[in-house]
């Protein structure tokens, strides 16, 4: 196949080695087709391809963690369109609408692929892979030290990770390498560490199969990894390829790993064989190419795509959320492009709450209050409680008058605090309770505190409520519940501790104990 590759270029070499012709389209003068910025319009790429006499069979967009890539206009291509989206649990806010634009959407974690399938997307789980050549030079290195960890360690950003490493450090000597701000540890040096330490620790930011465990096993290291039930154990077995731990048995598993040389040798050998046999970039490229080929054989794929109005609405949603999440990465340009697309979709009669909501947020972010107000009122007509809340907040902030409607009256009856001003702690607590009741507790990977207030989730309202009134115990307790339910136990424990200090309830203490246990603090 002739494959145009946009975004991350990691698959260029393995796809070429499989016999496919790969055309690199990137913001790089040395690329086969240089493009402008991370979000090129397909039309500009297609025009350049036509000049070169190239007609792709497939267009593949690969997510780039360093600088998210959102090419637009791909629905106009007659080629198969596919995307590969990574760090999926932390990027659902933009990846889910973006995935709907493609003939094939591949996610690096299974839960997000399943969610996309439930929305009618042709989505699949494609786990991450590694390039084994990067780890072969250390095969003769010998174990010398006890335990190591490579990765970002910052208790303000990854408190559970710091808690795990503190537990390990209390028992054995632990070497830690890695960090932010250009301090990443070189791959070759990391591979040497993996091979020369008896145990390599892995902690999960989210329960999934990530690159780090594959790197450790590819380097021939012994991996003691936090368990990810239903994901990682589909491919790697406890006591066969590695050892898993959880908050109940970390100390016991660490002692076992350090004390059983035979177990370590068996797992090191089997783990490396498993990665080299099924989890390299070459394996992933082959799986990816098979998905492209299957889609190419689908004669109805063009008819299954969103129509033009729907497509620009989805593009607008994805561009908007990436602009709000990463304002320093071409954020203003993305925001303007998002707003233009969302207005076009709305003008084209694309009716749907996600598009209307996104259009309202875009207008808010641009300071176009009249346009935002009209869109918020349009959204509220659909009767969703969260939309009535968003309109109420915006009107309190900008319009000076609150629209009287039955929906809002019912909200105030259930949450009396909504009758107050948006600058009152009780108002934010009531808003948080409403949003939490409707599945809007928090957005993983996206703190919306700097975004327009009408698009906040419950957690942002609770943070504001506790800032305004640090003695508001229900806000601390609800914040703990939301954080614990969303896989942030250490952060939850801080909220529960504050709630317990203000009102020592048995239920709060039980939740605090659970949060401390899950956060490796107990």
From TrEMBL:
Record's protein name: Spore protein YkvP/CgeB glycosyl transferase-like domain-containing protein
InterPro entries reported for this sequence: TPR-like_helical_dom_sf (IPR011990), YkvP/CgeB_Glyco_trans-like (IPR055259)
Stretches assigned to the Spore protein YkvP/CgeB glycosyl transferase-like domain: 164-289
Originating species: Desulfarculus baarsii (strain ATCC 33931 / DSM 2075 / LMG 7858 / VKM B-1802 / 2st14)
Coiled-coil intervals, chain numbering: none
UniProt cross-references to SUPFAM superfamilies, sorted A to Z: TPR-like, UDP-Glycosyltransferase/glycogen phosphorylase
């Amino acid at each position: 196949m002739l494959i145009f590759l946009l975004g991350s270029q990691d698959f260029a070499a393995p796809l070429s080695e499989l016999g496919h012709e790969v055309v690199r389209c990137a913001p790089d003068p040395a690329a086969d087709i240089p493009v402008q910025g991370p979000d090129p319009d397909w039309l500009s790429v297609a025009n350049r391809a036509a000049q070169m006499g190239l007609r792709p069979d497939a267009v593949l967009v690969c997510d780039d963690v360093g600088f998210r890539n959102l090419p637009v206009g791909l629905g106009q291509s007659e080629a198969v369109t596919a995307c590969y989206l990574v760090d999926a649990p932390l990027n659902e806010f933009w990846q889910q609408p973006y995935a709907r634009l493609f003939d094939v959407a591949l996610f690096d974690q299974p839960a997000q692929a399943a969610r996309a399938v439930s929305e009618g997307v042709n989505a699949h789980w494609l786990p991450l892979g590694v390039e084994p050549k990067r780890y072969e030079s250390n095969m003769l290195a010998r174990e010398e030290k006890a335990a190591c960890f490579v990765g970002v360690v910052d208790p303000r950003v990854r408190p559970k990770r710091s808690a795990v490493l503190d537990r390990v450090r209390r028992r054995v000597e632990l070497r830690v390498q890695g960090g932010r701000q250009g301090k990443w540890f070189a791959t070759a040096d990391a591979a040497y560490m993996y091979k020369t330490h008896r145990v390599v620790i892995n902690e999960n930011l989210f329960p999934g199969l990530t690159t780090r465990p594959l790197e450790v096993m590819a380097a021939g290291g012994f991996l003691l990894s936090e368990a990810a039930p239903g994901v990682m154990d589909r491919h790697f077995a406890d006591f066969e390829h590695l050892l898993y731990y959880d908050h109940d048995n970390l100390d016991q598993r660490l002692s076992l790993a350090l004390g059983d040389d035979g177990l370590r040798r068996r797992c090191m050998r089997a783990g490396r064989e498993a990665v080299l046999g099924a989890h390299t970039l070459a394996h992933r490229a082959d799986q990816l190419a098979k998905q492209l080929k299957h889609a190419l054989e689908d004669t109805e794929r063009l008819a299954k795509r969103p129509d033009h109005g729907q497509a620009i609405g989805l593009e607008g949603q994805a561009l908007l959320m990436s602009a709000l999440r990463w304002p320093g990465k071409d954020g203003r340009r993305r925001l303007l492009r998002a707003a233009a697309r969302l207005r076009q979709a709305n003008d084209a009669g694309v009716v749907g709450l996600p598009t209307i909501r996104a259009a309202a947020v875009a207008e808010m972010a641009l300071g176009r209050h009249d346009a935002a107000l009209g869109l918020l009122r349009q959204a509220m007509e659909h009767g969703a409680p969260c939309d009535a809340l968003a309109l109420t907040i915006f009107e309190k902030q900008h319009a000076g008058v609150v629209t009287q409607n039955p929906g809002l009256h019912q909200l105030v009856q259930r949450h009396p605090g909504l009758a107050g001003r948006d600058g009152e702690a009780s108002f934010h607590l009531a808003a948080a309770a409403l949003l939490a009741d409707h599945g809007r507790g928090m957005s993983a990977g996206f703190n919306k505190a700097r975004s327009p207030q009408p698009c906040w989730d419950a957690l942002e309202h609770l943070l504001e409520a506790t800032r305004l009134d640090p003695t508001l115990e229900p806000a601390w307790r609800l914040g703990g519940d939301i954080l614990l339910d969303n896989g942030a136990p250490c952060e939850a424990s801080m909220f529960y501790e504050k709630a317990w200090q203000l009102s020592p309830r048995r239920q709060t203490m039980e939740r605090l104990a659970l949060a401390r246990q899950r956060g490796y603090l107990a």
